[in-house]
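Here comes an entry:

___
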Amino acid sequence: MWKGRFQTDTSNLVQRYGESISYDWRLYAYDIEGSIAHAAALQDAGIINKTEERAIVRGLREIKQEIEGGQFRFKTSLEDIHMNIESALTEKIGAPGAKLHTARSRNDQVALDVRLYCRAESRAIFGRLEDMQSALLTLAVNHPDAVVPGYTHLQRGQPVLFAHHLLAYLEMLERDKERIRDGFKRINVMPLGSGALAGSTIPLNRNLVAQKLDFPAITQNSMDAISDRDFVAELLFDISMIGVHLSRLSEDVILWASAEFGFIELSDAHTTGSSLMPQKKNPDVAELTRGKTGRLIGNLMTLLTTIKGLPMTYNRDLQEDKEPLFDSVDQIKLALEVFAEMMAVAKIKEERTLSATSDPFLLATDLADYLVLKGVPFRDAHEIIGKLTAHSITEKRGFAEFGLDEYQQYSKKFEGDVYRVLDIQTALKARKAVGAPSPANVGRQITKWQKRFAASKGL
């Protein structure tokens, strides 16, 4: 493609080192889509005629069919997907194919292709996030009465409905969807027409190209358009954050599925065994997801490190944006898909969760609140219940086993109604502030999510 300037062929080693066709071939559909729109702009500007445009479009569509049918032969000597397609087109239709690159650089061509790819994959990730939310919601709906200890520092704290715990992850995933939706606006800007860095003396109708490609906006600075990979970094951050949320859920699932907790049973289809220990049933999906999160974060760091020191405009370093992008997109889509499938058929072992919530100390805070409602300052109430807890541990008796006289040794504010506090269902029903886990609140939240999913139109 640059034979006019150079006297010697590129060495085979440099070709191997610099090629990207081994991975950017997957941009073929977007490259062809962009080229068809570019051909329309060339025809509109009088650079090619209608017959030539039709030949280009026909040739590009044939190439797409060949690629999808496995008949197309990619050539490393042509470096990337752009030159492979252009070369094949020129070979197929002759002179009109050689005109296609008029007023276009590989710089704005790849910027366009990557934006088209990120746009499509953002929609795919968004859809899988909704599927993941739906799977967790299904589990919550199937076990509306299951109660578990809520934990801080991995120590039992207060009782909550299991559904409330699951809905916490729906909130996290909803924020992930919001980030994807917001980033989509910055992806959805059309860069073609920026040329190598300064546009072209052959002005094409960029608005026409944007319309053909369904872009609502076009870039306003050719130098920025060529070098901008912010939208890729933003998408990689969004993917990393999704990974972090899945990793946190993975940790919960791994604990819940252990013999020590026993709160959840994963299906045989979503677990593995041991090559040595025949009794084992391992939560590999959750463990792999937790592990892959480091890879997603690493891909984000790779891109940020690549772009942090680049001068304007295009530099070959930017070729390194695609492998981390492709890898993160592939991994997060698969992780969301398999995790949703696993959680949709998981079973909550309610007898184990109920047993765990029989721990009387889960209601220690409720006892403190009881004293507060009797007029005791919270700090004093906190100290009183702390002493009562120490007494319970020493005596090896739960709060419900104490007589009223024992309670009144610690505070005269205790009365006969204290025993009504020592009931899990009463405790849950009392947690009725906005966002708290009362059954009524959780029921309303489940209904809200169900309506939201029914009305969803995707990204």
The mean pLDDT is 95.
